[in-house]
Predict the structure of ribose-5-phosphate isomerase.
Amino acid sequence: MISRIGLYFSSKYSTMLSLENAKKLAASKAVDLHVNCGDLIGIGSGSTVVYAVERLSERVKADNLRVKCVPTSFQARQLIVKHNLPLTDLEIDRELDVCIDGADEVDCNLNLIKGGGGCLLQEKIVASCSKKLIIIADYSKNSKKLGDQYKKGIPIEVVPMAYAPISNKIQKAFGGVLDLRMAVKKAGPVVTDNGNFILDWREYNQDSDWDKVNTTLLSIPGVVETGLFINMASKAYFGMEDGSVKIQAP
Ligand SMILES: O=C(CO)[C@H](O)[C@H](O)COP(=O)(O)O
């Protein structure tokens, strides 16, 4: 089901909305509609989540909203701390009301590619402990099939010593190309918050049964988690170029 929440910006924004403004629009709308006083919230990772935390912080100050936040990454933890929001974890709070997170791509069935920022493992754990996963994104993330928009590949977090045989196994089972994600401003590969490597899987079959593929990938020894979030999202909010918010629900 897809719906639109009217035009929020008048003449001032009559030109096309930038990606940053679209992210902000989606993030604010999702926080306003899905966060209630007393909630335990999972805080996702990435550039769109920055706007969600800013909106949360505004509501805490303006409306005396009481919330506690569980981060999905080092970046998310820093955001929570920067905005003086109460920090908690899954040892203390095991079931969360809502998790708000970004995505690299959202298909027409609300299946997601995540992990472009390398934080997929903790994101998936926190989302799995939340009653609902709300996705916030700009219009460029909205697609029909996984791979239509996001061309960098499906991120797969792996134990470092196993990255080469895992690449071979995936290539043999499903085809495509696997790249070991390399760091920028550091020699060698990206090392995740959990001390693992990331393989980005490109040129896969876009018509795959993603649930099955995900299960098969997870059965390979050394695969820690995949960036395929299948049947996990409750709703996605997209900030659109025309200043509206598109809501996608199952
Ligand atoms: O999965 C993620 C990080 O690992 C992010 O949610 C995803 O990459 C989207 O990020 P952004 O909001 O910057 O577009």
The radius of gyration is 18 Å.
